[in-house]
Specification:
Blueprint lengths: L4 H21 L7 E6 L3 E23 L3 E6 L6 E2 L4 E5 L2 H36 L5 H34 L1 E3 L4 E3 L9 E2 L5 E19 H13 L2 E3 L6 E5 L5 E15 L5 E8 L11 E18 L4 E2 L4 E6 L5 E5 L1 E6 L2 E6 L6 E5 L11 E4 L30
Parallel strand pairs: 1-21
Antiparallel strand pairs: 1-20, 2-9, 2-14, 3-5, 3-8, 4-7, 5-6, 7-9, 9-13, 10-14, 11-12, 11-14, 12-13, 14-19, 15-16, 16-17, 16-20, 18-19
Helix pairs in contact: 2-3
């Protein structure tokens, strides 16, 4: 190396050494700031979202119980009727004639009995004077007994004829809403078979029929055995119905039946709830969405939805440990509640779950924790007003003079 280039090389080496020292002297960046929530175990209602179908509380077919010609429909189709109210009229003339014939038979039987009774009384008086034989007395008393039996048979015939005549006025067997007329006036009904005239449905209250899979019920029973779930029995479990437009029905139903046999075709168990319907706004046959409260869940955590992430392994959350470093925890969820995930396992009481700033952290790095504010504006949002903004039409103070 020539004497001229040697000072230049030394100067360059000195500059490189100074630059390296400056880089080493730069401070490390501060740990990212994240919003955290403290995990706290809670007891929350055990709810399931299901689909059910409405059914009438009671349903009764109104049929013709005697043969005859239908003469009149008394009720208005689709109206509410009371138990015992007359709905249809059947021509009573043949039935009235049958009643009259039965009454005539009863009168004849009573007359025969009177004659037989008088003859038997006379025979009982004469037997003491030995004017007749014992055989004649026995025959007279036998005729009296036969006549008395004939009277009883005739009375039964009259009663039967009166019942048939009463059936000519077809009455409502239950209170409810009567449906469409099935047979027109002038048709012959009840000839050889009972004829369906209409149907009455009691729609206050209503039944809500739904089902749950056997596997889900078994999981709930196992959880109850472990103490994490407390199931409620029939009459205590509540059902909240959501209508087709998304609104919540104002009345709350109660579970009143749970089948003990699973359907072999669907692998589900049938359940039923009783739902008040005082305004008769709900109609049988409609499908509804319902939220069934079956009991309580113990030791579960409500975590903001933004805190729960998912990948190929499953759901997980990022937690800031006691050493200030971020740790991943795999969790299991069971639906949502009030806009939060319901975490059933994977968390411990006091865990600092990151709910804001997840994009800033990685597993194993340090993070600075601050309480999570769900109402905080997202980063980069425009300010409502800038403090250095000047009113429109005014000049800065430096330009007013």
């Amino acid at each position: 190396m020539t004497p001229t280039l040697r000072p230049i090389a030394l100067s360059a080496a000195l500059l490189l050494a100074l630059a390296a020292c400056k880089k080493q002297e730069q401070p490390a960046p501060p740990p990212p700031e994240v919003g955290v929530v403290a995990a706290a175990p809670q007891t929350v209602p055990l709810q399931r979202d299901l689909v059910g179908r409405l059914a009438p509380y009671r349903s009764s077919d109104v049929r013709a119980r005697v043969p005859g010609v239908l003469t009149k429909r008394v009720y208005q189709e689709g109206s509410d009727v009371k138990e015992g109210q007359v709905l249809f009229l059947i021509d009573p003339a043949p039935l009235q004639a049958s009643l009259s014939a039965s009454q005539a038979q009863l009168a004849s039987a009573q007359a025969s009995y009177t004659n037989a009774h008088i003859a038997a009384e006379r025979a009982r008086q004469l037997i003491g004077q030995k004017f007749i034989s014992k055989s004649d007395l026995d025959n007279a008393e036998a005729a009296e007994r036969s006549a008395a039996a004939a009277v009883q048979s005739a009375k039964a015939g009259v009663t039967s004829s009166r019942i048939s005549l009463d059936y000519a006025s077809v009455r409502a067997p239950i209170s409810g809403r009567a449906g469409k007329q099935q047979v027109t006036e002038g048709a012959l009904v009840g000839q050889g078979d009972v004829t369906l005239l209409t149907t009455i449905d009691q729609i206050d209250p209503l039944y809500v029929n739904f089902s749950m899979s056997v596997s889900e019920l078994e999981a709930l029973r196992k959880a109850q055995g472990a103490g994490s779930v407390a199931l409620q029995g029939n009459g205590k479990a509540q059902v909240q119905v959501t209508l087709g437009d998304g609104s919540v029905y104002g009345e709350t139903g109660t579970l009143d039946f749970s089948d003990v046999v699973a359907d072999p075709q669907t692998g589900a168990v049938s359940l039923r709830a009783q739902l008040p319907n005082p305004d008769k706004a709900l109609l049988p046959g409609s499908f509804v969405t319902l939220k069934a409260t079956l009991g309580e869940q113990n030791n579960v955590f409500l975590v903001p939805q933004a805190a729960v992430q998912r990948d190929t392994i499953g759901a997980y959350v990022m937690v800031v440990g006691k050493d200030g470093k971020v740790v991943r925890k795999n969790v299991e969820t069971s639906g949502t509640r009030d806009g939060k995930w319901l975490v059933t396992s994977g968390l411990a009481a006091g865990d600092q779950v990151i709910a804001a700033g997840l994009q800033k952290v990685k597993e194993g790095v340090s993070a600075k924790t601050t309480p999570w504010n769900p109402n905080a504006a997202p980063a980069g949002a425009p300010n409502a007003a800038k403090p250095d903004a000047q009113p429109k039409g005014e000049k800065p103070a430096a330009q007013q003079n």
